Amino acid sequence: MLPRIVVAGNGQLGQMLSQAGAPMQIEVLPVDPNGDVELGLRPDDVITVEIEHWSDSVSGLQLKQHPNFRNAAALYAVIDRQRQKALLDRLQVPTSPWVSLEGDNLQTQLESIGDKVIVKRRRGGYDGRGQWRWQKGDQPETEWAGECIAEAMIPFSHEVSLVGARNAAGEKVFYPLTRNWHENGILRASVANLPVPAEQQRNAEAWLGRVMDDEGYIGVMAMECFVVDGELLVNELAPRVHNSGHWTQEGSAISQFQLHLRALADLPLITPPVEGASVMYNLLGRDWKPEWLQVPGVHVHWYGKEIRPGRKVGHVNICRADVASLIDSLQALQALVDDDDKVVFDWSIAQLQG
Ligand code: ATP
Ligand code: MG
């Protein structure tokens, strides 16, 4: 009997985990961890998360205190950016220079990092929220003390991420590095299966593997990196399925969602096969159009949320057998999307053309 997988959080990630479980009849139950209801959890349920923060509500405590709540150690380490940075330092995983902002003299602490700094709230930030740019000469905010870390602004050439999984036996598998474009801290698009220097892939797998082993992690974890002069520098970890892995839904025979379920349910973990090339285009505060489905390789994923400016309400995967066909599809789709999003396709095509 496979366990039921209960997901703390009932947004799109839980929804997509449910979809991935359906063919194998793995029951996936996303729940609101902030609710005040009795969840009726069973002793053999396995609990996973799609979000990292929730309150000690009635439901929240039932989830956290369940004997099969997975990855408490990793969540504890990652949930707070200071602890996360300290973990990466301890495991000798390279990250941007950083300092924890404390007490008075913020100016001196910030300057110790560099002339251009990003201040990040230790807890609760996502999609670029809870971040501030600071430059030498700017007045620091006193509220940053005790609440934020500061990081050197990294002059990266591009951003990539690694998505991988580990099971209870310590076996680990990974997808190829994905190239990502963030704008104002929010992911606009990802390109998958570009040629990557073997050393980058090897280093990234070694680092994420080291983190997962250290935390006794079970499931999918993502690691975001900057590329600087061809070398990787880790930006941050996400102890869950990740937006930059959404292309795997049709770009691999084993999606990151299925991979996560395999690890949690102790089903065989094999390296996900990836052929062809894929682009993931995030729908930020905009609807999709039926005519998009005329374009070969287009797969629409709609989250069923109310459309609000800038909100992630869906994504489109464009997956083709080779780069030339993918570029054809991207050009065809580009002609059909809103003007503001045409730039996403220019960027994606430029990455594919190298
Ligand atoms: P997520 O939603 O992925 O959790 P986030 O809001 O937690 O994102 P980060 O990933 O730390 O925050 O930052 C968002 C983006 O801001 C990065 O992908 C990158 O584009 C930019 N950024 C963050 N830190 C730095 C840095 N030290 N130097 C340069 N750019 C940065
Ligand atoms: Mg990020």
Automatic annotation (TrEMBL):
The keyword ATP-binding is assigned to this record: yes
E.C. numbers: 6.3.4.18
Lineage: superkingdom: Bacteria
Keywords: ATP-binding, Ligase, Nucleotide-binding, Purine biosynthesis
Family assignment from sequence similarity: Belongs to the PurK/PurT family.
Subunit note: Homodimer.
Protein role: Catalyzes the ATP-dependent conversion of 5-aminoimidazole ribonucleotide (AIR) and HCO(3)- to N5-carboxyaminoimidazole ribonucleotide (N5-CAIR). Catalyzes the ATP-dependent conversion of 5-aminoimidazole ribonucleotide (AIR) and HCO(3)(-) to N5-carboxyaminoimidazole ribonucleotide (N5-CAIR).
UniProt-recorded name of the protein: N5-carboxyaminoimidazole ribonucleotide synthase
Source organism (scientific name): Marinobacterium marinum
Lineage, top ranks: Bacteria, Pseudomonadati, Pseudomonadota, Gammaproteobacteria, Oceanospirillales
Gene: purK
